[in-house]
Amino acid sequence: MTRTQVELGLRADCASCFGLCCVALPFQASSDFAVDKPAGQPCANLQADFRCGIHDRLRESGYPGCTVYDCFGAGQKVSQQTFDGRDWRQDPATARAMFAVFPVVRQLHELLWYLAEALELTEAATVHDDLCRALAEVDDLTRASTAQLQVLDVGPVRERANALLLRASELSRADVPGRAEHRGADLVGARLRGADLRGASLRGALLVGADLRGADLRWADLIGADLRGADLSGTDLTGALFLTQAQLQAARGDGQTTLPPGLERPSHW
After folding, report:
1. pLDDT tens-place values along the chain, 269 residues long
2. Which helix (H) or strand (E) holds 238?
3. At what angle do helices 128-142 and 154-173 cross, to 10 degrees?
4. Which helix (H) or strand (E) holds 110?
5. Contact (Cβ atoms closer than 8 angstroms) between residue 237 and residue 217
6. Residues 191, 15: Cα–Cα separation, whole Å
7. Most CB within 10 Å of its CB: which of 16, 29, 50, 224?
C-alpha cells in the first residue's frame, strides 16, 4: 500500500465493521458461493460479533467468492463514521440506509485506491495536481451524509477519475517499446505462457482462466482486469499498474511469481 492509501484507511478492518459485506450484498449459489443469499439478509455464517464463523476455511466450505472481495476500507468507514458506530442489530432503523450506502462508499473507496496509487507514479507528475484534486473530491464524497450518499450517482465521478487514471497510465508506460493494446479484450482461457506483455494495456480485459505462466507483465496496466483462475505462476508483475490484492486472490500463482511492493502472496498459492 502507498502512504496515501494507508492514510485514507483503504485497507479493510473487519473488526471495526458490522459485517456489511456479509449482509448488504447478495450472492448466488455457484462455484463462488455455496448457497443463495439475497441482499439485506445476513449470511448464515455471520456471528453475533459480526465475524465470519468459517473465515479460516472459506474456500473449503464453498465460499471462495468471499476471499476475493475487498471493500477497500468502506466497511469501517460506513460503520464507524457514516453511522457513528450504531450497528444494524442494535438499531434496526439504520439497516436499510446502511445497506444502501455501503456499496456506494465501496465504489468511492476503490477510486481512492487507484487515485492514491497514480499519485505515486513519478512519470505521471504532469497530472499529479489534477489527481490530487480528484482524490480530495472523492474523499469528501465518502464523508457525505447518509441522505446524500443514498442518491449519489457515482458514474460521473468514476468517469472523471478514470480519465485521469488513463492519462497517468499512458504517461507511465510511454517508454515501454512495443507495448500491446488489449483494453477490454476477451482473453478468456488465452494461452499467453511466456508472453511479453511489458507495458501492455489490459484495462478491463477478461483473463479468466488464462495461462500467463512465466509471462512478463512488468508495468502492465491491470486496472479492472478479470484474473479469476488465471495462472500467474512464475509471472513477473514488477511495477504492474493498479493491480489489487483481490485480483491476486482470484488468480493462481506460486513462489516464483514476482509481486509489486505492498501486495501479499495469497495463502492458497
Report:
1. 888 999 999 999 999 999 999 999 999 999 999 999 999 999 999 999 999 999 999 999 999 999 999 999 999 999 999 999 999 999 999 999 999 999 999 999 999 999 999 999 999 999 999 999 999 999 999 999 999 999 999 999 999 999 999 999 999 999 999 999 999 999 999 999 999 999 999 999 999 999 999 999 999 999 999 999 999 999 999 999 999 999 999 999 999 999 999 899 999 99
2. none
3. 150
4. helix 95-118
5. yes
6. 41
7. 50
Return d(Cα 232, Cα 230) in angstroms, integer. Answer: 6
Sequence-separated (6 or more) residues with CB below 8 Å from residue 215: 192, 193, 194, 195, 196, 197, 232, 235, 236
20 and 12 Cβ atoms separated by less than 8 Å: no
CB 241 within 8 A of CB 172: yes
Instruction: Write the single-letter amino acid at 133.
Output: R
CA distance 73 to 81: 12
pTM reported for the whole predicted model: 0.95
Cβ(138)–Cβ(161) below 8 Å:
yes
CB 226 within 8 A of CB 244: no
Grid cell listed for 37: 443469499
Whole-angstrom distance, CA of residue 82 vs CA of residue 75: 10
Q: One-letter amino acid identity for 238?
A: T
Give Cα separations from 43 to 34, 52, 62, 257, 268 (angstroms).
11, 9, 13, 34, 23
